[in-house]
Amino acid sequence: MSRPPPVKHVLVLVDGTDTSSRAVDLAIDLARALRVRLTAMALVETETLRQLLSVQVLTEVEMVEFEGSLQESACRQLAEVRERALKRGLEIEDVIARGNSEVVVPKEVQARGADLIVLGFFEYNRAQRDLLARQRQQVLDHAPCPVLVAR
To answer: 3 lies in a domain?
Structure first.
């Protein structure tokens, strides 16, 4: 009697960094080798923007502009990932999620049925100062499935 494959759907987090790019390449190769679904997800961290607004670091207008810029950047990043996957013969789903990573990522993983998250490497000691490192740490802390960290 054969066992079902341990991974059927890989979700890779995309944020435009070099380590994220390496994670994307690894996720594409992994999904092709295992013949499983792949979803690329970019996150617009709106919770941080709201906090900056609440302490008056940003005005409402600046927050809306910044959020729009983050959305446009996420769209560009996902388009590049989609192109890279298609060049390697792999169809890919993509999603832009909005909110706090510790809440949004687990919800997306469960809603999409992903059973492996791939994300780029980060230095733990920078997680308190660096928003992207903090987001990645939150994913590790709250992920409902295994997480593969790509160097």
So the answer is: no
